[in-house]
Amino acid sequence: MPLPSAIMITSPPSPYPTLPWSSHEDSPTATKPFEASFDPNPLILKPGESGTSILTITALEDAELGTYAMCFEMGNWEQTGVSGETFQLEVMPS
Asked: Which domain holds residue 60?
């Protein structure tokens, strides 16, 4: 069974060693069922440019079957003007 919705598990994306928002780390010792990475990271843009960074999510061996709500945050919304996107990820039997 997936984690209760009240629990937030966060991991800094590589190559960053820590999250810039300490308030998001409310379950730092919980087992994390997923790993995530972006490529390229960082994505460097000039004004007026667009680019692509691919998010790869890996369900670890001990990830429980079920549907998970995942949130992709866009940094400080006061700076970026965007808060983030929420999507569902389903772990199914192989």
From this structure: 22-91
